[in-house]
Amino acid sequence: MKKQSEKKKRPREILRRVETRHVTTDPRPKPRSTPPASESCPSGEKLTLTHSLQGGVLVKVRVLLLLLLLLLLVKLLLMLLLVVKLLLMLLLLLMLLMLLLLMLLLLMLLLLVDVGHLAEGRVRVLLAHAGARAHVVVDLATLCRGFYHHLLLVLSQDMALTGTSSK
After folding, report:
1. pLDDT tens-digit profile of 2-56?
2. For this UniProt entry, which segments traverse the membrane (predicted)?
3. Digit-coded pLDDT (tens) for 92-104
4. What is the three-state SS of 55-90?
5. End-to-end CA distance of the chain
6. What is the Cα 113 distance to its own chain's centre?
7. Rounded Cα–Cα distance for residues 140 and 133 (Å)
8. How far is CA 115 from the centre of its chain?
9. Taking the model in full, what pTM does it have?
10. What is the DSSP string of the chain?
11. Nearest CA-CA partner of 127 in 116, 138, 117
């Protein structure tokens, strides 16, 4: 019987020993580890964060951050310059397109004038055979020819005012 009671007490004793090991605390603070000799101050004091930052590290960090900010500003200015350059190129292309359209319009105007000269003869006959009203086309041709003569008159007056000759 004693053996059975010993067996029953044994796990309880083990539990008590384990609990007492974990429960006990040391009221004294643990000693801090001392820094290596390379990190200690020349006066023999312990190296702290404020000592290391006073030694110029904080100034170096600030300078690096300012340089990084300056680099970022330069990059933004270059990107802005690139955007302005692209917009100017787009404006130039638009102006060239407008010049091309103006030249095309002038070419069409000259073609209309040539049709106006032909309209009194051939176009009237062609449209009369086709059954269309020839007088409408002839009026349009006369209008185009009149505009052409008016344009030549304005250009000749402009050349006379500026002193340039057509020869």
Report:
1. 555 555 556 666 666 655 555 556 666 666 555 555 544 555 555 555 555 555 7
2. 63-84, 90-113
3. 999 999 999 988 8
4. HHHHHHHHHHHHHHHHHHHHHHHHHHHHHHHHHHHH
5. 143
6. 49
7. 12
8. 51
9. 0.33
10. -HHHHHHHHHHHHHHHHHHHHHH----SPPPPPPPPGGGS-TTSPPP-HHHHIIIIIHHHHHHHHHHHHHHHHHHHHHHHHHHHHHHHHHHHHHHHHHHHHHHHHHHHHHHHHHHHHHIIIIIHHHHHHHTS-HHHHHHHHHHHHHHHHHHHHHHHHHHHHHT----
11. 138
**CB contact at 8 A, 145 and 116:** yes
- The Cα-based distances of 17 to 10, 13, 69, 86 in angstroms read 11, 6, 62, 81
At which residue do the structure tokens 């300012």 appear? 66
